[in-house]
Amino acid sequence: MLIKLAQALMTLREVAQAVEVDPSAATVAVDLFERRGLVRRLPHPHDILTDPPPALAALDADDIAALTRIFVTLNTKPEPRTTPTADSN
């Protein structure tokens, strides 16, 4: 199986099919491999998402920083909320 993966560049969908997992599982695995320096991701030449949409490309550094903070907040596990009890009043 590893030989097949090493023979040529593959899309994530092709990787998933080769190892018989869901595409989302392949994405998680490739993300881990990339962080460890075991694989390198390249944009697909026909991928329309390689260039940001014009509205996103027009954002300045402050807007990008604000957007990044929003995404970090959305992707962070929220702290459990504590609800006041009758004893706490």
UniProtKB/TrEMBL annotation:
MF term (GO), any: DNA-binding transcription factor activity
Q: Which domain of life is it from?
A: Bacteria
The portions of this protein that span the membrane are: none
The cross-references to Pfam families, in alphabetical order and at most eight, read:
MarR_2
> Which residue ranges does the record assign to the HTH marR-type domain?
10-47
Query: Gene3D superfamilies recorded for this chain?
Result: Winged helix-like DNA-binding domain superfamily/Winged helix DNA-binding domain
What is the official name of this protein in its record? HTH marR-type domain-containing protein
Q: Which organism is it from?
A: Rugosimonospora africana
